[in-house]
Every structure is written in C-alpha cells, then in structure tokens.
Specification:
globular, 102 residues, 56% helix, mainly alpha, 6 helices
Length: 102
C-alpha cells in the first residue's frame, strides 16, 4: 500500500526543506509558528492542516496540489529561484575590520 496523505505531506515538506536549503526554523518563521510546532507536524505527533498546507505551498511558490501529491511532485514544482545551489556554502557575513584596531 502507498503512503497515506499525512505521510505524503510530511515527506513533501521534508523534501522541500532540503531542496530549498532551509531548516525547520526557517519554515516556522515563514509560517508564523514555532520550530517545535513544525517539528511536531513533521514527526507525526501533530498533523499538517489544510490551512498549513496552503501556507507551506505559498511559501515555496508551488500549488497546494503539488504539495499533497508528495515529495517528487512538490520538488519538481519548486521554482528554480527557490532551490539551493549544491556545493555552495552559505555566505557568512563577518564584521569589517576596525581602522586602527589590533
């Protein structure tokens, strides 16, 4: 038997997080919830509501039906501008040197 709808959504969210190079904390901030709430939804302790699904889809710029279809369809629908570039490290901003400093 195939995945349940809840499993498809959890898998799709995980795949989107990975493809976009985002953390659960990043997604939580975009949705206006805590990282713990995203973690509970991803672990299956709590369910993603339809309203949540719409918000996740909007955040990633995909149609909610693509999200509900599962990880393959969701990541295929992810716009190129939202994808992380493999092999590129995140740029760390370092403070500029202070003139005359030691």
């Amino acid at each position: 038997m195939g995945m349940s709808l809840e499993e498809r959504v959890r898998s799709a969210v995980a795949a989107l997080l990975h493809a976009a190079g985002e953390s659960q904390t990043d997604l939580a901030a975009a949705l206006g919830v805590s990282q713990a709430q995203v973690s509970r939804r991803q672990s299956g302790t709590a369910a993603w509501s339809l309203t949540d699904c719409e918000a996740v889809a909007a955040h990633y710029g995909i149609d909610v039906l693509e999200l509900l279809a599962g990880p393959t369809r969701a990541t295929e629908a992810l716009p190129a501008a939202r994808r992380r570039v493999p092999g590129r490290q995140a740029t760390i901003q370092r403070p500029a040197a202070v003139e005359g400093g030691v």
